[in-house]
Model the fold of this input.
Amino acid sequence: MGFVEAARAVVCAVALAAVCAGGTQSAGGSRLHGEGPPVDDWQAAPRLEKGHTPPSDLVGLWQGILWADGYLPRTSVTCSYDATTVAATRVWQSNHRLSADGVVGRATYGTASRRLAVVPPWTVYHGDRFDLPLRRNRDGVYEVWDVGRFRELRLDAVTLAQCRR
Done:
């Protein structure tokens, strides 16, 4: 699948493609930030762990990665770190020679971030099945195309339309 087709798949089918960086506080809550080369943007992202992670755009990000790599169906992108996401995460981790604990932490984010590339004006996650096009705004805040417009990704809330259904 080419870049344009992948972009359409993300916009039309998933309405979710996200890349995160260490969250920093800004007006209106935590946003996902990055600067410089995207390969290290995820290193400071909060851990995702079943029972300890509230629903958020960050969880939707991880589910989008699992979808792009073929580990989750689009319908499982819910922004909730549930049993389905944990199981898919464990398989993803095992296939990437990581400890298959189902927790998305520094090592898991680091492995996934190696698939990030700058393809102006986008930052793209190159998944096994789909490429996820993203962008960082002037302030370094990551944004994702969501139902007709770019939306900043949040660490502390669910704002993505795909997850509010």
